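hey all, quick one before standup. I had two proteins in the batch that finished overnight and I want to keep them in one place so we stop losing track of which output belongs to which input. First protein below, input sequence then structure tokens straight from the run.
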Amino acid sequence: MFTYLRRGTRRNTAARLRRLIAALAVVTCGVLGWAGAVPAASASIIPVPADGPYGPAPAPAVPVITAGGMPGWQITLIAVAAALAAAAAAVVLDRARASRRTASVTG
């Protein structure tokens, strides 16, 4: 009865592959978003009432020293990664320009 609707509706392999890649990209973005939100939710401070069953929080025996800022090794790592990414992009763009120039001269 409905066999005429099924003719010619087969997807080719490239379309299936594109759809699979798009689905994997959506799942990956969702997992990355979840992984970014979980530490932020876990870092919230939950106040404990002083008159509750746990009592007041004891004073720390050792003074806690906190310093703001980012460690030097992280700054160095970010700078090196940015330099490598810029160098890779420059090489890719230069090769693309060179191949286009060569193809237009000989063509």
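OK second protein, same deal, sequence then tokens:
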Amino acid sequence: MGHRHKPFYRISVADSRSAATGKFLEQIGHYDPNQNPPVVKVNEASALKWLKQGARPSDTVRSLFHREGIMEKSQLVIKGKITETTPAKARAALKNRPKVHKKVKEAEATAAKESLAAAVKATAAAATAAAAAATAAAAEAPAEETPAA
């Protein structure tokens, strides 16, 4: 769904026999990658119900469910280790990660290299200035007088 260059996806459950016609059984959520960080809204109870009945998520939906903690929770519910009312543990490292464009990363890397080069030049210039000052101080210092005989 959405418009050109502004995608918006529905997460729906479809029967494998009618998936090609676009008919679906239930819409259980949506995914909006345009937001920063991307927004994923899923009806967890419906998702668990369908996963428990044997629904197989697509690769993309599986990764979204993994990010939200629904895949792990469904496995634990099926094994009987937790109940369906236990809240899912969303993966904090994956959930609210802001989108960063590749060009922004390259610009940050270039800026870091330039600042490091500037720091090295400044350190070298300071060392050169300190050496020149020490040489000048040694040249201006009065020579030791030799005792007159």
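Flagging for whoever picks this up: The helical segments are 44-52, 59-68, 70-79, 92-95, 102-140. The two ends are 105 Å apart (CA to CA).
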